[in-house]
Amino acid sequence: MRYAPYETLITPARARPELWRIAAGVIVALVVYVLLLMSYGLSIDRISGAPDTFVEMIDGSSPADTMGFLLTFLFMIAGTLTAAILLHGRGLLSLLGPLPYFARDGLRAMAALIALYAVVTLLPPYVMEDLTPNLEVSAWLILLPISLTLVLIQVSAEEIFFRGYLQSQLAARFASPVIWIVLPSVLFGALHYSSADYGDAAWLVALWATAFGIFAADLTARTGTLGPAIALHFVNNVSALLFMSLDGPLSGLALYTLQIDVNDPQVIMPLLWVDATMMVVSWIAVRLALRV
Predict the structure, then answer these.
(1) What is the C-alpha radius of gyration for the chain, rounded to an integer number of angstroms?
(2) What distance in Å separates the CA atoms of residue 187 and residue 158, rounded to the nearest whole number?
(3) SS3 sequence, the chain?
(4) Closest listed residue to residue 117, CA positions, set 275, 10, 288
(5) Lowest mean pLDDT, pick from 2-6, 81-85, 126-130, 276-280
(6) Is the pLDDT of residue 233 over 80?
(7) How far apart are CA 138 and CA 24, in angstroms?
(8) Whole-number pLDDT of residue 128
(9) Which residues face 246 on adjacent strands?
(10) Phi, psi of 246 (to 5 degrees)
C-alpha cells in the first residue's frame, strides 16, 4: 500500500492530534449540523405555513423534496469546518489536500469513471425489469445542472467529514491504516443503516456503505487529496440518484425508478452485488488512471 502521499493531509492534523480533540470535534460538527438543520426546518415550516412541511420533505420523493434535502449537506460542511478550525486550527484546504493536485486527480478520476460507466451502460441487458420512468426527459434535463450541483454538495460534505477530517485526524494519532481507514468507514456505514427504509435488508446497505468508505479512504491515502474520493462518490451517487433510483425517498430527481421491495434481503442482495462489483471496478479504474 503506497500511502506516502497521504502525508499532505496528515501533516496539518499532527499539530493537534489528541483523541479528546477528535471526539470533541465530532460532537461540535454534529451540534452545528443539528442546529443549522433545525433552523432550516423551522424556516421551511414557517414559510409554508404548515408545521410538518420539513418532515414531509425528508420523507418525500418529489424533485423539490429531494433538492431540499440534498441542500442540507451544506450544514455538514459547516459543522466539519467549525470543528476543524476551533479544535485543530485547520482550514478547508488542509482537509481537501493541495488544490492543484486535488483538481488534477479529481478530474482524471472523474474522466475515467465517466468512461467506465458509459461502457457499462452500453452493455446488455438494455432493459431492466421493474424500471419505471420517473421524470419527463425535458424536465430532467432542465433540472440536471441544479441536480448535479446538489449531488456534488452532498458527496463533498460526506468526504470532507469522513475522509478529510476524521480519517486524517485518526491517522495523525495512529500509525495503523486498519484504524484510520476502517473506523471512519464503519461509522460511515452505520449512518447508512435505516431499518425504516430497508427493513431486514438495512444491514446489507450499511455493509455496502462501509465497503465503499474503505475504497474511498484508500484512494484518499494513495493520492493525498480528496479529489479521487469525491469523484468516486459523485459518479456513484449521480448514477443512483439522477439516473436510476430506488423508488422512495431521494428518488425525486431520477430519470427512472426501480420498483422493487427493498425490505427483502433476497431481492436487494443481487442489486448490491452488482453495485459492489461496480465499486471494485471503479476503484481499479481510478487507480489505473492515476497510476497509484
Answers:
(1) 19
(2) 11
(3) CCCHHHHHHHHHHCCCCCHHHHHHHHHHHHHHHHHHHHHHHHHHHHHHCCCCHHHHHHHCCCHHHHHHHHHCHHHHHHHHHHHHHHHHCCCHHHHHCCHHHHHHHHHHHHHHHHHHHHHHHHCCCCCCCCEEECCCHHHHHHHHHHHHHHHHHHHHHHHHHHHHHHHHHHHHHCCCHHHHHHHHHHHHHHCCCCHHHHHHHHHHHHHHHHHHHHHHHHHHHHHCCCHHHHHHHHHHHHHHHHHEEECCCCCCCCCEEECCCCCCHHHHHHHHHHHHHHHHHHHHHHHHHHCC
(4) 275
(5) 126-130
(6) yes
(7) 47
(8) 63
(9) 258
(10) -65, 140
In degrees rounded to 5, what are phi and psi of residue 256? -130, 155
Chain centroid to Cα 135, Å, comes to 23
**Residue 18 Rama label (left phi>0; alpha psi -120 to 50; beta):** beta
Q: Quote the cell numbers at residue 278.
A: 461496480
Quote the CA–CA distance of 266 and 163 in Å, as a whole number: 32
Q: Which residues contact 98 (CB under 8 A, 6 or more apart)?
A: 8, 224, 225
Residue that the C-alpha cell 461502457 belongs to: 119
Task: Give yes or no for residue 127 having a pLDDT over 70.
Answer: no
Cis check: omega of the bond before 125, within 30 degrees of 0: yes
- Grid cell locating 185: 468507514
Beta bridge partners of 245: 257
Q: Assess whether pLDDT exceeds 70 at residue 223.
A: yes
**Mean model confidence pLDDT for the chain:** 93
Residue 129: the pLDDT is 65
- Residue 126 predicted with pLDDT over 80: no
Q: In Å, how far from its chain's centre is CA 49?
A: 32
Q: Which of 27-31, 126-130, 275-279 has the lowest mean pLDDT?
A: 126-130
What's the full length of the chain, in residues?
A: 292
